[in-house]
Design a protein that fits this description.
It is a single chain. The protein is an alpha/beta fold. The chain has one domain: Metallo-dependent phosphatases (Purple Acid Phosphatase, chain A, domain 2). The protein is about 35% helix and about 20% strand. The strands form two sheets. A seven-stranded mixed sheet has the order 4-5-3-2-1-11-12. It is globular, with a radius of gyration of 19 Å.
């Protein structure tokens, strides 16, 4: 791991945003874009990439959804625009580091290679401006469903799709009643005991491994639940996703970390309603959704 650690970057000579961006940060982390699925909020994501300029951009796994693309091809122009923007950032001086996840695990065989200026690494140790060491990993290695029962993971993928379909019809009714968007899947994640328990156990397991590696904190994705908190003296950060949450983690020039919520912003050409267009999406297996369905079925 130490071979990936790099010393503190020197102060940026020109702190102004580049390439038409409105915000400049030292580092940004995004994950779980799930490009290749209808659920990916590509227009909002592209707006984020245009507005936020950074010295280093981490792509923390599940960038391209290989699981879905193997089942059926879905690749609209907006998804191509996202890829082109990422490559443009690399050309314009941003260091882009890709840490593959379970849905783009095909990229793990290219670890230590570089494509179009994008570096591929299995994991990374990032040093913040204030000297903290943050271990970067997607997080799927700490998901028992993914590691021990992959067939169950695919079942969960289908169940999550069913939740999104129900969510779409439910919000169509709410819209006719003049009510705002409400995410059923997000509500279930927070309210169902087993889902909440899974998230908590995942966070503790990842933080424990970060401590074992001598890190001050960890940045991961995978469970689509943006969070930043301290666990037993280790800073746990999850940058969320770009299917429902529309969140990213950023590091400011002084080392301060912040979660940016892009779902509250308007985006040209698209009304951002997380999950609304995902009725046929398969944005990934997340054990919280498995826990949700397990809870429902066991209560019958």
């Amino acid at each position: 791991m130490d071979r990936h650690a790099h010393p503190l970057d020197p102060p940026t000579a020109d702190p102004r945003p580049r390439d038409g961006a409105s915000t400049r940060v030292r580092t940004a982390w995004i994950s779980d874009l799930h490009l290749g699925t209808p659920g990916c909020q590509a227009v909002a994501l592209l707006d984020f990439l245009k507005q936020v300029d950074c010295d280093t951009l981490f792509l923390v796994g599940d960038i391209i959804d290989g699981w879905q693309l193997r089942r059926s091809w879905y690749w609209p122009q907006a998804h191509n625009d996202v890829i082109q923007k990422l490559l443009r950032k690399a050309r314009k001086g941003t260091r882009v580091i890709f840490v593959p996840g379970n849905h783009d695990e095909f990229a793990r065989k290219y670890v230590e290679h570089e494509f179009g200026g994008v570096e591929v690494h299995g994991e990374w140790m990032h040093v913040t401006a204030d000297g903290r060491r943050l271990w970067i990993t997607h997080g799927d290695l700490f998901d028992g469903v993914i590691q021990c029962a992959r067939w169950l993971a695919y079942v969960g993928d289908s169940l999550y799709t069913a939740i999104l379909k129900l969510n779409k019809h439910f919000n169509s009714l709410r819209a006719r009643m003049g009510l705002p968007y409400w995410s059923l899947s997000k509500y279930l994640k927070h309210k169902v005991k087993r889902a909440v328990s899974y998230i908590g156990e995942f966070e503790v397991a990842v933080a424990r491994e970060a401590r074992r590696r001598g890190a001050d904190g960890v940045v991961c994705g995978h469970i689509h639940h943006a969070e930043m908190r301290e666990i037993d003296g280790v800073l746990y950060c999850n940058d969320g996703d770009w299917v429902e949450s529309l969140t990213a983690l950023v590091e400011h020039s002084d080392g301060r970390l912040e979660i940016l919520d892009w779902s509250t912003r308007g985006h040209p050409g698209e009304r951002v309603v997380p999950g609304e267009d995902a009725a046929t999406a398969s944005p990934g297996v997340r054990a919280p959704e498995l826990a949700v369905m397990s809870e429902v079925l066991s209560a019958r």
